[in-house]
Amino acid sequence: MDALVPLFDALLGALLLWLAWQSIFAADLFRAVVSFMIFGLLMALAWVRLEAPDIALAEAAIGAGVTGALLLSALGRLPRERYAEAAQHILSHSYWLLFWAPVVLLAWFLWSLEAAPPSPPGLGEMVAIHQPAAGVDNPVTAVLLAFRALDTLLEIGVLLLGSLAIWSLGPSPWSTGPAMPSPALPAMARALFPAFVLVSVYLLWRGSHAPGGAFPAGAVMGAGGVLMLLAGARPWLTGGEQGPWRWLLTLGLGTMLVVASVTQFAGYVFFQYPSDWSGRLITLLELAAGLSIALLLFALYLGGQPPVRWRDRGWQ
Amino acid sequence: MTFYLLLATALFLMALYGVFASRHLLRRILALNVMSTAVFLWLVTVARAAPGLDPVPHAMVLTGIVVTVSTTAVAVVLVVRLRASHRRHDLP
């Protein structure tokens, strides 16, 4: 059994390199995007191999799923280029030396670093000591929402900022819907959507004691929303100023800020939870963040401000 | 784990070349994504040298993945808008 592990590593590494090469240098852009999506899925395998199941879940849902959907929909809106033009690279041969000299230097530096790896002290021990105080069993969730909750707050802030930037670029080009929806897609999407909801709720519930949590849950839910949109459903999310959607988009960030401020006024440090309430507060924050992340990823996919009222689709 | 460090280095260098050498902006976005994945791989692999499982780099990488998808979304929308308004998909 142990003899198979290096073989698996070598096969995985070779496939990852080949797919990365395809996604950067393939002549056809569609082929490049699909290669990138498969690259994300295989990276999830690599994360499992490196004993990082939380990252594997996030990579499969966000890296391969949501990013792939984004790139494919962008590709659909760009006119198809001639292959020769799309594959053109702009570095002429005289610049290669300028590029490759630092690259070789960097490679040598990384190689020497690898030969004598810096012995990392690691924070695993400290996390293990303080984890009972956090009130959750999964160390990654404890780090994300208790020890380094400020990072997570800023991360959701980045997501919100991204969708704000996209909304400010103009109306969503999606208001017309797919030109030729497959007749099987709406029925299949209707059948699959409950499974998406179930999986994301399960991941959210699991996050407190096992790999899972708000980010994979939100990503799965957002991907379900994208599937429904592609199947021709009219999304609930609208750009109206009076609707609840702007509040729901900011729900994650808002709840985190409220919790952080309230604990500060109650005599604790900013974002320090009272130890009796820690587990419950983390569950509350995960719920709010998961819902917000799902909607934010969906808003990112829309590629612009959604209209105040979605028009009816032809297939209905 | 040496193998995964070498893999991360190779992916990073390949993507770095792609970012500089590609003309099509969507290709550059793809290369940037591959590059960030290589950095994450490097980070988690190095963290495994520590005794025991270190969850802090895992949390950092999770944060990084979400930030990457946000920047990718904004960049992709900018490319689509650039194409619609200026009829081009590369930088002058």
TrEMBL record, chain A:
The keyword Membrane applies. It comes from the Bacteria. Keywords: Cell membrane, Membrane, Transmembrane, Transmembrane helix. It is found in: Cell membrane. Pfam families: MbhD, MnhB. Residues 187-277 form the Na+/H+ antiporter MnhB subunit-related protein domain. The chain crosses the membrane at residues 6-25, 32-50, 56-75, 95-113, 145-167, 187-205, 217-237, 249-271, 277-303. It is a multi-pass membrane protein. The keyword Cell cycle does not apply. InterPro entries: CPA3_antiporter_subunitB, MnhB, MrpA_C/MbhD. Residues 14-80 form the MrpA C-terminal/MbhD domain. Its main location: membrane. One of its GO terms (cellular component) is plasma membrane. Belongs to the CPA3 antiporters (TC 2.A.63) subunit B family. This is Sodium:proton antiporter. It comes from Thioalkalivibrio denitrificans.
UniProtKB/TrEMBL annotation, chain B:
The keyword Transmembrane applies. It is a multi-pass membrane protein. The chain crosses the membrane at residues 6-22, 29-47, 59-80. It is found in: Cell membrane. Coiled coil: none annotated. Keywords: Cell membrane, Membrane, Transmembrane, Transmembrane helix. One of its GO terms (cellular component) is plasma membrane. Its main location: membrane. This is Na+/H+ antiporter subunit C.
